[in-house]
Amino acid sequence: MTHTPRTTASAAPAPPFGRALCAMVTPFTETGALDLDGAGRLADRLVRGGCDGLVLSGTTGESPTTTDAEKSALLRAVREAVGDRASILAGVGTADTRHTVELAREAEKAGADGLLVVTPYYSRPPQDAVEAHFREIADATGLPLALYDIPGRTGTRIEPDTLIRLAGHPRIVAVKDCAYDLLGTQKVLARTELAYYTGCDEYVLALRAIGGAGYVSTVANAAPGAFRAILDAFDSGDTAEAARRQRQVIPLVESMMSAGLPGAVTAKALLGRLGLPAGPVRAPLRSAGQEVADGLLAAYEQLPAV
Predict the structure, then answer these.
(1) Contact predicate 161/130, CB 8 Å
(2) Total domain count for the chain?
(3) Whether 176 is catalytic
(4) Looking at the record's lineage, which domain of life comes first (predicted)?
(5) DSSP code of 47?
(6) Does 2 score more than 80 pLDDT?
(7) By the number of CB atoms within 10 A of the CB, which of 18, 57, 131, 294 ranks highest?
């Protein structure tokens, strides 16, 4: 009896923005100004540590409290620091379609490789309006789009059927998935060519195992190699090692992402304890206290060497 070989993850088409992406913090000085030198140094460390893509001005990058000019300056500084060693996704999503188009065009001029576009928030548009919003952004530049589905923050889901329709647009190529709906994700994976990146660090292996492209990780700000090792083990065929690696990062994931504080706060607290560029968060967020920072460092120090 002849068996048709299965397609492995390593034989799948190359993901559009790499596999191992970090949702990079936006470093500030102690006075709260944009720290472009620190951003370049942090970006270089992340790429040397295993990231083949960086997401700038996303949730972890505190995009609601950075200006349009700061977003462009950050992108240019990181592009200069990493060159062509990693892809750069620029977060341009806002609650305003017109403003999002403006940010998308500026990101294209500043050297982005792609755009991360979150569902319009606060106004809670219906699905036909959500779809029209994304199509307008996709038509505004020549860059590929990753749609950011995070209903817990935006109040609005990008429904699977909407994603399936949007997959027909030539520049809508990926999804950053924070919907916590594995059934819906598999529905879209089965019916489209969209590259799925988990935005939830605890799902790195699970999503990869069902055909996902990789991850956009907040915790990778501090531990890029630990997350890259999960994918490397799985893609080499060692699923037991991949599972072990995933379990090893869970204490740090829980400390950073399930402690009642936003990831930007905990990531910057840990980076600060490690002597890496980060600085304070901007109001209305408040920097973590000493006890939280101590706990994060303790969890980080439990990670085995990669």
Answers:
(1) no
(2) 1
(3) yes
(4) Bacteria
(5) H
(6) no
(7) 57
